[in-house]
Amino acid sequence: MSDVPFLKMNGLGNQIIVADLRGTNARVTPEAAIAINARAETRFDQIMAIHDPRTPGTINYVEIINSDGSRAQACGNGMRCVVQALTAELGRQRFTFETLAGILFGEETEDGQITVDMGSPKFAWYEIPLSEEFADTRYVELQVGPIDAPVLHSPSVASMGNPHATFWVKDDVWSFALDRFGPLLENHPLFPERANISIAEVVRPDHIVLRTWERGAGLTQACGTAACAALVNGARTRRTARKATVTVPGGDLIVEWLDNDHVTLTGPAEFEWRGNLNPTTGAWTRSEAA
Ligand SMILES: N[C@H](CCC[C@H](N)C(=O)O)C(=O)O
Asked: Which end of the chain is more exposed for a tag (fewer CB within 10 A), N or C?
């Protein structure tokens, strides 16, 4: 397979590689993802692989690959990077994409911010999915730490196309060892497809502070779908309004749960440098200085 162009980008510090597989039948293999992530300059959280469209009315099919080689259904920060890359290339601002999670829309506005419509959240236990039935997923039984004094417990769970658990805390989110608890919770038997794990402090109804341990990627500077999950979980547990600023380690995202049930995510995207990569092996070269 010959090399394809890629862009190294980030969405609030969420490390993203946008790979251009348009016009090819190739896919980024798990082995390639692992090899790319093993090199310091291309350590990433997600690869967004842009493919030819599969469905009329969409511009591209976007496949999302985590740094452990697994596939993700959705990635909010990565979609903003894709929108920015295509806006720069094509000179248009609005796009309709297809991902494993379905059809979604993205738009770059005049101020350079990018809004992605991430679709509707899902709350039924089998949609997330959970391995046991919970009639009400606003709080599910799950805890870490001593049984009589759990450090984290009773998360709200939701699917934003991908599985999320939001643990509510009163203390500073930085006082929790998410690097220790994250892997245990991500792989907990309650989550048959694993899950993205977040801790959230509601500072005000319109302001959430959030840290996320991402499924297949670990601690990240930002996780867009986790910000969306925190907002919808906050609104349905009456902690937050339907629109809030979500402060993640990399900066601020704006999330809104619209009356039509769709959730929009707004924030920046940043281009860093470009290169060419082999989607089968992950070997790459840089084509231009930053
Ligand atoms: N960084 C992404 C989330 C990737 C989700 C992925 N870790 C998974 O669901 O496996 C975001 O901005 O939404």
From this structure: C
Average pLDDT, the chain: 97
What length is written for the chain? 290
pLDDT given for residue 110 in this prediction:
87
pLDDT at residue 57, as a whole number: 97
Q: What is the pLDDT of residues 162-177, one digit of tens each?
A: 999 999 999 999 999 9
Ligand 1 geometric centre to CA of 148 (Å): 32
Kindly indicate the confidence band of residue 111, based on its pLDDT and cuts at 50, 70 and 90.
very high
Amino acid at 71: R
Q: Is the CB of 77 under 6 A from ligand 1?
A: yes
pTM: 0.96
Domains of the chain: 4-116+269-286 (3.10.310.10), 143-261 (3.10.310.10)
Indicate whether residue 9 lines ligand 1 (CB < 6 A): no
Ligand 1 centroid – CA 7 distance (Å): 18
ipTM for the complex shown: 0.96
